[in-house]
Amino acid sequence: MFTSPLAEQLAPDLLERFLRYVRVDTQSARDRTQSPSTRGQLDLGRMLADELRAIGLADAALDENGYVVATLPATVEDAPAIGLIAHVDTSPDAPGAGVEPIVHRGYDGGVIELPRGGTRVGPHPSAAGHDIVTSSGDTLLGADDKAGVAEIMAAVAYLAGHPGLPRPTLRICFTPDEEIGQGPALFDVERFGAAGAYTLDGSSLGELQDETFSAAEVTVTIDGVDAHPGWAYGTLVNATRLAGEIVARLPADLTPERTRGREGFIHVYELAGSAGRSVIRAIVRDFDDDKLHAHAELLRRTAEEVVAAAPGARVAVGVEPQYPNMRRFIERFPHVVTAAERALRAEGIEPVRKPIRGGTDGAQLSAMGLPTPNLFTGGHDYHSPREWASLPEMAAAAATVVRLAEVWTQAEFRAAALGAAPLPR
User: Which of 74, 83, 164, 177 has CB 3.0 to 4.6 Å from 194, enough for a Cys bridge?
Assistant: First the structure.
């Protein structure tokens, strides 16, 4: 069941932390006017900083922007500083307040009827026999990314309590607002001082990812001509109807529900407004930058064609880059990925290499000069009330972090880090 005796040893502390963290409402808000976008993220940040200090990381602190940063000093001389990163916020795509986690011991792999919301989890036969955690059914669980937070905390607590184990300097950071693409916005890479880092923000056992979508958000604002509906003949130009026509004209095979693998998409996630003004919000994604630009241009062209056929209406289209495919930045630092592969195998896990159909803080951090691949967490079905997490897989992720610390003390990785980036001040 557990990947190693170490993973089994870490599991009780990990579960206790996870259940505590998911109860804190940390949903981020898309219309961010400050960092973090919601106060609940500060509540969890304070809790984490207190817990880090309690396990011996004396410099642990929460800054005014919602970033928790701490240092676990090295036990091996000349080892580089390595970063461990997870985000505290949860997605605004599903209800996130009042999370009540439920632990299902010895899950049988079938369908679980949750007590609220008419929500069903499963079947997931590959997790049969696992202890799994779900919400009560009317909220998301928050494993994205509180599983990653709990795994880093459990691994760091274990390392701090076993000073005889080899480890490099570990720099820990818990970021806000990752779900709205703002996690690295105020991250100080130079001050963080790491030669490489890892986000724990993946899903299935063994995932190791160094490639993400490139991403942009497209906002289409349609201004119509409003009029009283009783006297609207020849005058009213309904912005809501124009918005519906724009969405209907987009290719059905270029949507998330019709694409997979390395295929990109246009995802309209919000349409709101009135007859006078309506706004379409969409995200565009692709692994290829030229295709990403083509998706955004298709949406722009479609909107302009529809509105041009409605005299009196106007349209404005804004395209905002969100994050780049991190592969082009990480491939210059292959040792960062190789170290993760070695740590996974040391834990008895064969690495699963596949690109992320999404993004992580690591995409922007890698572009900012901190190569940051992504590791699994054991969470599944993110951004929905069906979300669940496997305790054995979560424990395997925490154990992989402990293994990773040892890998970075090995001579070849110390040398590679020195050649790729300066040691921290």
Answer: 83
